[in-house]
From TrEMBL:
This is Glycosyl transferase, group 1 family. The lineage of its organism: Bacteria, Pseudomonadati, Pseudomonadota, Gammaproteobacteria, Cellvibrionales. Keywords: Transferase. The keyword Transferase applies. It comes from Luminiphilus syltensis NOR5-1B. Residues 171-331 form the Glycosyl transferase family domain. The keyword RNA-binding does not apply. GO terms for molecular function: glycosyltransferase activity. InterPro entries: Glyco_trans_1, Glyco_trans_4-like_N, Glycosyltransferase_grp1.
Length: 359
């Protein structure tokens, strides 16, 4: 089950997982809200069942999901989303007596009195980073109930040739533009404000520097307004959500990700697969993706001076930036493949089913 409506982050991971598990002979039914983009990314013979979900407090969702479980009779339910799917989905699976696995993609702590109650709903929890696993362990969850299976990337699909002419025309950029992008939901914890605070000195030193802000969320209007004011006018471009991010990435100079909190960062996997160096923070699972000094630079969360210094270092040393990008690409191919991720999830399924006497 995946309740995200757009095909990025967790929803993209679910599409990778379902499509790859089918090669292993695993039958899959995807449950998602009506109109979700993920439905179009799932290939037959997997089927999609659209189930309405009004939010975390939509108690009626429990009954709707129970009907799907009764009809499809799965061996196991795998929940991938926080938006109502974690608790409500766990209740539905428990009421039907179906083994249930939860994927946790965020690193925010949960109360020590909530964890024993909530996580009793799940036979096992999969975290997408070791940092998220640590958060749950610190909250009192048993290590026997948690397995880390990191998010994956189809690296070959993101290793495309640049199209400089198209890129400059599409975003109305000058010939000499060197472009960083931040590709993330437009929400507070992604740290857009830190990047904006770091930019003025960089824009003064590097007049060819431009920033693309890619993504959608509640901060969109605020960021658009900020981009109309000096010194950001004509330099910061708030683009919104793009379906063609694969085409955009190869034309960038680097990616910046100044997040305050991050489970792992699928956008960072994509950037490295495209051969881009990354400036990011040591938040959550990011250090599991970006190797400081090797595939990019890591800064303390919220340290705008360090972010500016790291971006300046890349701009001053384009050969180093290129080497970092190549190192990141190799790392994605070696350590973050879809095959590795799918095998890790399948191993958890088999462990859960064996414990339930269904192995």
């Amino acid at each position: 089950m995946e309740t995200g409506r757009f095909l990025y982050g967790g929803a993209l991971q679910v599409s990778y997982l379902i499509n790859r598990l089918q090669r292993e002979g695993i039958s899959n039914t995807l449950v998602c809200p009506p109109g979700s983009a993920i439905a179009d990314a799932i290939t037959p013979p997997a089927i999609t069942v659209e189930v309405a979900l009004a939010g975390d407090l939509d108690i009626g969702f429990v009954g709707r999901l129970r009907r799907v479980i009764k009809t499809t009779k799965p061996d196991l339910v795998h929940l991938h989303s926080r938006r109502g799917a974690d608790v409500l989905g766990g209740i539905a699976a428990a009421l039907e007596g179906t083994p249930c696995v939860l994927s946790r993609r965020v690193d925010n702590p949960e109360s020590r009195w909530v964890i024993p109650i909530k996580y009793r709903l799940y036979d096992h929890v999969i975290t997408i980073s070791e940092e998220i696993r640590r958060v749950l362990l610190d909250g009192g969850l048993s290590g026997k109930q948690i397995t880390c299976v990191r998010s994956a990337i189809d690296s070959d699909a993101w290793n495309l040739a640049p199209e400089r002419g198209w890129f400059l025309t599409e975003f109305n950029l000058p010939e000499d533009a060197r472009v960083f992008a931040i590709a993330a939901q437009l929400i507070e914890r992604k740290g857009h404000r830190h990047l904006l605070k770091a930019l003025p000195s960089l824009l003064e030193r590097w007049p060819e520097l431009h920033i693309l802000v890619l993504g959608q969320g509640p901060l969109y209007g605020e960021l658009v307004e900020i981009a109309t004011k000096k010194p950001f006018l004509g330099k910061v471009h708030v683009i919104g959500f793009r379906q063609d991010i694969k085409r955009i990435l190869p034309n960038l100079f680097a990616v910046v990700h100044p997040a305050d909190a991050e489970g792992l960062g699928v956008a960072l996997l994509q950037a490295s697969s495209a051969g881009l160096p990354i400036v990011a923070t040591r938040a959550g699972g990011i250090p599991e993706v970006v190797v400081d000094g090797e595939t990019g630079y890591l800064c303390p969360p919220g340290d705008t001076t360090a972010i500016a210094d790291a971006m300046n270092s890349l701009l001053s040393n384009p050969d180093t930036a290129r080497r970092m990008g190549e190192a990141g690409k190799r790392r994605m191919q070696d350590e973050f493949s879809v095959d590795v991720m799918a095998r890790g999830n399948l191993a958890v399924y088999r462990q859960v089913l064996e414990a339930a006497g269904q192995g």
